[in-house]
Amino acid sequence: MVGGAFVFCYRRRSVATYWIGAVEIVAQKVVRKQLPGKLQPRPFHYKFSASRSAALYCGQRSMAPLAAEYGTPLYVYSADHILDRLQLFQSSLAERDHLICYAVKANSALALLQMLARRGAGFDIVSGGELERVRAAAPDALNRVVFSGAGKTADEIDLALEAGIFSFHVESEAELEVLAGRAARLRRKARFSLRVNPDIFAETHPYISTGMSEHKFGIPIAQARRIYRAARSHRWLTAHGVSVHIGSQISSAEPFGAAMTRVAGLVRELRKDGISLPCVDAGGGLGIDYERASGFDPAAVAEAYLRSIEQALEGLNVRLVLEPGRFLVAQAGALLTRVLYVKKNGRKTFVITDAGMNDLIRPALYQAWHEIVPVQRRSGRAVTVDVVGPVCESGDFFARDRSMPPVRPGDLVAILDAGAYGMAQSSNYNSRPRPAEIFVQDRKARLIRRREEMADLLAPEIELM
Ligand code: LLP
What we know:
This protein is an alpha/beta fold. The protein has two domains: 60-78 and 331-453, Lyase, Ornithine Decarboxylase, Chain A, domain 1 (Beta Barrel), CATH 2.40.37; 80-328, Alanine racemase (TIM Barrel, Alpha-Beta Barrel). Helices cover 30% and strands 24% of the residues. It has 13 helices and 21 strands. 46% of the residues are buried. Bound molecules: ligand LLP. Ligand LLP binds at residues 103, 105-106, 124, 148, 208, 245, 248-249, 283-286, 323-327, 362, 366, 420-421, 425.
């Protein structure tokens, strides 16, 4: 790590590295000794039996019996791991006034929201629906909600005003006018931050990069000062902060620091105008190492990230709000699926699983890499396969030309790092009921969402008479 920056790079893996399972267990023991509390860098890991066969575990629970009990496809989350990640942020920021607003869009399971709210987290929402989720899971946390999004409707704004949320993140002048009008009508003060667009390049997939002038998000930072000044005279608006979110799955601290430096400049300019903003919201976006190749150390990554933000804000004495999604939940989750068939078409070998792109769309949508491992390892030579689902599209794949240990029909495989934007982006495409979800905490496994049934899919529909 150099100058507070972290960079983790991506490499393709050979099958030999699957033996990393063994090394990982030892490494985890070593790392755990060095980290505070019981931080576990990897919730999914292999355990070896006396016969040297390896079985995949989530925390202390073996994955195979979970599949037998709850069926497949199944989302399995380590609740312990999520709490560890939250704790990482909270303890690093213990010395300063801060609020962690978990980005609900990453994984909006009610049990997860409840668990995070109990640990003091707030929430970043982007719709009236997400507001209702927070209300259902943790009504006491409504005053810790920030509302982002470029297209809020008047109804959604009313809902959030009535709920008394912490702050609106306003993304255009037109939206600020609507907010002012609704606040006046309801006679409720609206606390707002302008979400500024700092025009910063964050190296990530183009679909999830949001902080450049060509993107739809935010207000050009150069216009913000004028808008804050104009809003000052509005009786029902209170300027409460400034927010920024430059993208997602960002693997270096630099762009965060650069964006914050611009934001800090704006805060200083506004002070000269007599406008003193109490909060700065740095958004989310901190990435993880999907490719698991580079000795990723979450504590060091979080620390470098926070340091780059805090350095930029030095001397400003503002409350720091963060909106992490992926970093808290991605590595805590795996999609457990069963192999239905293994077949050859020409030179290609396809492993067809009972999970499909409707259950996890990230590989199809962002060409995302997810590590895929057998739950029970078989001996034998590695094979190069495409791991695909049953959905009727060639885009329905989890991995292409991937070197994997051999698998057979009936075997279980786990698609790792699927805790963020997995279930949250799932659909019923091909009329496929969505998977069940479970939490693993200590030795206990708990169902947090039952598997959908066809009746759930058909319920809203109206047949012709
Ligand atoms: N705050 C705002 C305003 C956001 O738009 C987002 C994510 C976050 C926070 C949380 O970002 P995170 O910490 O999770 O990177 N579906 C894509 C990711 C989309 C991210 C959208 N915005 C994926 O699967 O990679």
